[in-house]
Amino acid sequence: MNRQRTPYTIRLLSAITPGHWIALSIFLAIALIAVPMLNLSVPPDSAFHVSAYAITLIGKIMCYAMVAVAMDLIWGYSGILSLGHGLFFALGGYCFGMYLMRQIGHDGSYQSDLPDFMVFLDWKELPWYWMGSENFLWVALLVVVVPAIVAFVFGYFAFRSRIKGVYFSIITQALTYAAMLLFFRNETGFGGNNGFTDFKRILGYSITAPETRLVLFGLTALALAGTLVFARWLTTSKFGRVLTAIRDAESRVMFIGYNPLWYKLAIWTISAILCGIAGALYVPQVGIINPSEMSPGNSIEIAIWVAVGGRGTLIGPVIGAFVVNLAKSWFTVSFPEYWLFFLGLLFIVVTLMLPKGLVGLWQTLREKRAAQGAK
Fold first, then answer.
1. Measured between alpha carbons, how far apart are the two ends of the chain, in Å?
2. Tell me, what's a Pfam family for it (predicted)?
């Protein structure tokens, strides 16, 4: 007798425990209700007021948390360490940045239909790849498609050649470094080393208006929650179990009839798409995108977020992204010359003493407490 296929909704609900749903509901209630009220209704001199700076900072970190979850899908669950994920994040940011630059219109310094940097460089018309960039839906499609195509093409040749381990990490770092050098060039049509900035509007609304910033903040919170739900469903599905098996013993997976190429390529492309979406949400909140987002150092930092929080846990990378970036915000203001030393020390300590990250430490403490209670 044929077994009936479980409906998608039931499988999604069963993959997430009631505790997870409660935690997500609390998070969304704070992000969508409490934060806007504390920002708009509470006087700025009150201790309960949430400033515009705090909203921008937390919104930026939530974008980073999405990237960390995307990294965890390929590193924590698939055993593929990428040191080039900053490329996909930046590609999504540049795609949406093109739309934001077109929205400036005649409000730019040169009052031209072309972006200011093109006028300054004596461009006469938009390059062909800018066509349609004034259309929000077209750009939203590019945010997904461009990182997906780049990831698919690169991943296909890399995985087909069975490049893995440190060699894969090195070529991903070389890829993002080459892209950074390309985007630094003025003739590529992406603003050179200055990138895109001085945004004015999004969908006709002022990008600096408090209401617009709160909407972007809320959308980022929803996107992060959706990413966690999707990642949880994916990793608990048959597809996710095969990925974990590939991570632990790829040769055995091949022996029982699975082709690891397509599984690794699928999760690699999905991870790139999530990074692209995060980059698109990041740009209007921060107000700038330039080639420095593709620097190898940024991609290495993404791996550090996952390692600090705990790879293979989903919530760990989110915690790691918040802990590291909040510490970075404090250190770069109070002790700017020591930030990189702190980051390096943090990574060493986590690698040697907390191999499972902060989440693993919490789990270990709970197990010890339970063992002591049983005695």
1. 49
2. BPD_transp_2
Angle at 189 between CA 185 and CA 191, to 5 degrees: 70
Residue closest to 275 by CA, chosen among 56, 116, 118, 66: 66
Beta-bridge partners for 201:
206
d(CA 241, CA 173): 28
CB half-sphere exposure, 279, CA atoms < 13 A:
33
Are the C-beta atoms of 218 and 32 separated by less than 8 Å?
A: yes
What pairs with residue 83 in β-bridges? none
How high does pLDDT run on average in the chain?
89
* Other CB atoms within 10 A of residue 120 CB: 15
Q: What is the largest CA-CA distance in the chain?
A: 79
pTM for the whole structure: 0.92
Q: What residues contact 23, with CB distance under 8 A and at least 6 apart?
A: none
Residues paired with 196 in a beta bridge: 289
**Confidence class of residue 358 from pLDDT cuts 50, 70 and 90?**
confident
Tell me if residue 196 falls in helix, strand or coil. Answer: strand
92/104 Cα distance (integer angstroms): 19
Per-residue pLDDT of 17-37, as tens digits, reads 787 889 899 999 999 999 999
Residue 299 phi/psi, 5° resolution? Answer: -70, -35
Spell out the residues 6+ positions from residue 127 whose beta carbon is closer than 8 angstroms to its own. 189
Q: Can you say how many angstroms the Cα of residue 74 is from the centroid of all Cα atoms in its chain? A: 13
For the record, the structure tokens of 141 come out as: 């499609």
